Amino acid sequence: MSVTAEDLRRAIENLIDAKLHDALYRPGGLERLRAHRISGVASPDICNAERKLDDVLIELTAPPAPVSAYRRRPRAKIESMELVSTD
């Protein structure tokens, strides 16, 4: 599976939305965000959004899978008929 710019954009927006929702709609949201910056402990929504962004970034920066350099040998002649390779 290849990661597109759209996947990266969605992951970033999801993290921003989770942090804004936590800060604006939950009691003590700004204090929780400040504590998250200091201690690294966050609400489950923010942790999930960070994990999804990390997964997208890891997949985006991962080297491509190696392509096999295997090539088939041409087929031998059978009964005076020459078979053509599909390569």
Name a few traits of the molecule.
0% strand, 87 residues, mainly alpha
Cα separation of the termini: 26 Å
Choose one word for the global shape.
rod-shaped
Tell me the helix content.
55-70%
What is the count of β-strands? 0
Structural class per helix/strand content? mainly alpha
Concise description?
57% of the residues lie in helices and 0% in strands.
Write the layout of secondary structure elements.
Blueprint: H1 5-25, H2 29-39, H3 44-61
Notes on the structure:
The model has no long low-confidence stretch (mean pLDDT 82). Helices cover 57% and strands 0% of the residues. The protein has a domain at 5-60. The longest helix is centred in the N-terminal third of the chain and has 21 residues, at 5-25. Helix 1 (5-25) packs across helix 2 (29-39). The protein contains 3 helices and no strands. It is mainly alpha-helical and 87 residues long. It has helices at residues 5-25, 29-39, 44-61.
